[in-house]
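Deliverable D4.2, example record:
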Amino acid sequence: MGETDAYRFTAKAAKNNGQLQVMDIEYVLKYRKRPVGGSETVEEKPYSIMGNVVRQQKKPYFTEDDVFTYVLRKAKADKNFVKASPNAFASRFSASGKFLGNRGDLFDMTKIQKYIDLYSTKDENEHLAAKITAGLYNAKNGTINANDSEGTLILQYCVTTEEAFAEYLANVSERSITAISEPVTKSGFRKADADTLKALFEFKSEKQIGYSAKEAQAEWKKYQFPSSSYNWPLLLKGSQAKSFPSLNNKKFRITINAVDTPQNFFAVETATHLSKGSDGAQILLEGVVLQKTADTTDLTVTFLLSDGKTIDVLYPHTIH
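Output generated by the structure prediction step:
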């Protein structure tokens, strides 16, 4: 609508019983004439039939879903709406997200706060009220996944009302969620490499009380794990951590972060199976396997990350 050299089209609109009412429509055509040797004149001719056509069209006001879709579009346009924690592993969020169904701390709600405030209450200037929130979408079914070797997190999120999202998490809602993002890959999380894992999980061979370092070192060098492949699976996917093999009457002992109880660090969270490093950092490990053969003092530990990647960490040993 507007005015040009050829026409003028104006109208007024107002809300009427939940619909958009158009009124005072004016559509005017402009006819221009210029006689030979004379000046131009403009004759305006109104057309009421156009107004009748428009009046007969019913256009509903925007709905809640329209609002959610709009807010979702704004959130997607802001690359910082999904937050990364450089000091935390992405699997910390994926593991708990799959268990709980949500991780609200992944989203910077200040990015959409003005829309939350705008629709928080319904007054004479607002068409509807909706307590807007955002959260993970379908996380319990695996839409959130971590790649700790790259420091990335893949997820989907949605925008809806607080009530609808709570019902959705509780699996009691009959309302469908319509404003859903495509899979988003967020980088910037802590990366798991050999040096990092070695610092978090420090395996050592130490002398037993009553023996010298030389005696312990000699026996450690001859030792191999009691299995056909000379390894010891300390942690398997979905399981609790095992103990170290029995070292009764040995002159050495094996420790992890200065204690001999691996259960203090691996799969310490029963529900999520998250492991905890020496600095308290949580990471999802699907496997930890110790390897040691005779005629060497080195211990090799293979870590299986949640993204399927394996990382071998070498622990050279000289018992002092």
